[in-house]
Amino acid sequence: MTREPRREDARVPIVKEGEQERALLVGLDVRTRRAKGTVPAQAAVARDAAQSTDPSLSSPQRARKDAPSASGASATSNGKLNIPEFDAEESLAELRTLAESAGAKVAGKILQHRDRPDPATLIGAGKLQELAGLAASVNADLLLFDHDLSPSQQRNIEAVVQRRVIDRTQLILDIFARHARTREGQLQVELAQLQYLLPRLAGRGGEMSQLGGGIGTRGPGETQLETDRRKIYRRIRHVEQQLENVRRIRAQQRQRRESAPVATIALVGYTNAGKSTLFNALTRAGVLSSPKMFATLDPTIRGVDLPSKRKVLLSDTVGFIRNLPHTLVSAFRATLEEVQRASLILHVSDASSRLSAEQDAQVEIVLKELEAENKARLRVMNKVDLLDEEVAASLMAASAHDKARTLYVSAVEGTGLDRLLERIDAMIEEDPVNRVHLRVPQDQGKALAILEARARIYSRKYLDGTVELEADAPESVMRRMHEFVVPDSKVAVKP
Ligand SMILES: Nc1nc2c(ncn2[C@@H]2O[C@H](COP(=O)(O)OP(=O)(O)OP(=O)(O)O)[C@@H](O)[C@H]2O)c(=O)[nH]1
Ligand SMILES: [Mg+2]
Fold first, then answer.
1. Do 381 and 437 belong together in one domain?
2. Do 404 and 473 belong together in one domain?
3. Residue 178 CB less than 6 A away from ligand 1
4. φ and ψ at 41, to 5 degrees?
5. Residues 418 and 473 in one domain
6. More confident residue, 12 or 298
7. Any atom of ligand 1 within 6 Å of the Cβ of 272
8. Cis peptide before 291 (omega within 30 of 0)
9. Whose CA is nearest to atom 27 of ligand 1?
10. CA 201 to CA 487: how far, in whole Å?
11. What is the tally of structural domains in the chain?
12. CA of 148 to the centre of ligand 1 (A)
């Protein structure tokens, strides 16, 4: 289904199909920048820690030195937090991808260096005039700020530039609104948008509706809602109730799933790391993968057969990003429950990205928020096809041992996936596999078929109308086979 979510509910004018809005990107480089309220507390702590480490290296140098890094960004060799940070240029490059994911065309960018943000306008009155001129000259429809803006900053900037001003959180919310497909996903985004909107109601009246629709106006918009805070509260309660209903159904489905001895494995990672591509490669499902950020919002779960013939469930879900808006983290908490409940987490990284260390650090922060940082984990360094061939080969060789916690794969080309499945198999404890000795009458066609399909058979002997088998079989299969087990022959050997 490709319906744009909630357009009709929000009753806002939208950009016509095929018409691209022109966006001007605005970045601010502040050395002593403090986190604002929308940033998870840990992120602020981590950033502050990062800023105090190794000041002699700029971020790109660090990234190049580390990349492709197998150890990840959260290396704590001396017990200290050592989390690299995106620098302003890199951050602006990421904003460009976000802007394009929201359907905008980037018409220009501007980066302002300051000691501290200006409380009234973020970038300062002088720069703001310059910005207004540039916006006019490139004919920008809207300005995208690479920062969170306070409601009053947003109003002040809009008053000068006479264009829509969207901050990073609002842009991400907009992308989420575009990509949510399930009812739960749509409700979650609407809830986050309403919570974002609430403190921004005061003083935003007619002037905004004249500026028309487009990016940042999707969802609960600028029409009648804005004049009535109570209506928003009512809507929030309504959405929460609806979410409650949807989640009840999902909880029932999950309960049914959990009654089977099947492990769930969650894919997590920075947006665009290739989680959905890997998911499709492993499950042969047709989940949308796309160069757009946050292509996936709604969790998808599919079965995968491991080499031991055990079945596991793999779940693909929303990607993470630096400073994930807090309203979104809480709105998507239920979606991310799959991560909390998983037996094993596959942390997917883009090995070809110069920023993979920084991105991994951000994933760590979100995993911590979800209290999932201590779960069993495998690092999957994806997109090795984009690395230098020799580098890729040596990385793959170095991690080709039984205890490897980092694996190099190309989801697109299918390289390294067999090894990955073997490692998953070795790490999953649910439904353990044991070596068994069975004697099955030949007329038990169904039992024999199940064994063929769900066990690894090492030897078969035919004797007086029975088949004697040596096999590695999961306990779930053996539960249906106990009458055929040769007594005292069950060896507790794991494959
Ligand atoms: N070259 C190369 N490209 C890849 C590989 N895996 C994924 N990609 C590309 O990377 C982009 C993002 O892939 P997705 O699978 O949508 O990434 P994701 O992690 O699911 O992203 P979100 O759902 O947005 O969080 C797509 O353009 C993919 O084709 C790979 O192994 N090699
Ligand atoms: Mg995806």
1. no
2. no
3. no
4. -55, -40
5. no
6. 298
7. yes
8. no
9. 291
10. 74
11. 2
12. 27
